[in-house]
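Researcher: Before we compare anything, I want clean individual predictions. No alignment, no superposition, just each chain on its own. First chain goes here; please echo the sequence and then give the structure tokens.
Model: Echoing the first chain and its structure:
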Amino acid sequence: MAGKAKPEARKSRKGRSPAMRDYYAGVLSKLISARQEAGLTQREVSLKLGMAHSYLNKCESGERAIDVAELWAICKIYKKPMSFFAPDEL
């Protein structure tokens, strides 16, 4: 597979285009605001997800990427549709 370019979403955060980095920053911002709106701490959400207490802190800071299944579970906790976090446009 040498020489094949990675799809944009699979690149490291530093290797992504400015538009993709901005999009992901918007997703993280919405993740934080939805948690605060739900009146939950990072620790409470992490525990509801069955993750280590530092899990959501790393996600919200961009240190750890969120996969689709995790985002789906977070949507259920916050009572938000997936489209709230990941709009159709960059």
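Researcher: Okay. Second chain, same rules.
Model: Second chain and its structure:
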Amino acid sequence: MDKDWLNEEEMQLWYSWKSNYKKIMDRVVKDLSEKTGLSEEGDFGVLVRLVDLGNGVLRQQELVDSMEWTKSRLSHHLTRMEQRGLVLRKPLDTGNGVQVIITPAGKSAVDASRPVYAKAVRKYFLDHLTGQDIESITKLAERTDKMSSD
């Protein structure tokens, strides 16, 4: 087998994987956006991380790292979120960085959006899986995650 090219079966598998992932994510994002006004990757991702990883407060660099975004992308997104009253940014007293703080409006928004998000993920993905599917996908995710961190 030539390792420089994907054969037809490999190509079909790869395109199918990408296409289905995109369709599922698009449906989840659409439901979340239409029902809550939050974007999945940006708004929801930031707010959930603030609550789950930082009890409402994280350094901006911690958000960059956890979201795997560039500093610039996150900074621009946080500016839009600040304008909507979802977060505040405050320079650290040490002068080394910025804290991102969830506002009461941001906390209310993330609390209201979690059930919508969970319902969409179940509807478009989890409800279609068997126990064996879940086990296989989990093993694949662990293996590829380990491989990508080596």
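Researcher: What stands out in the second chain?
Model: The longest strand covers residues 87-91. Additionally, The longest helix spans residues 8-36.
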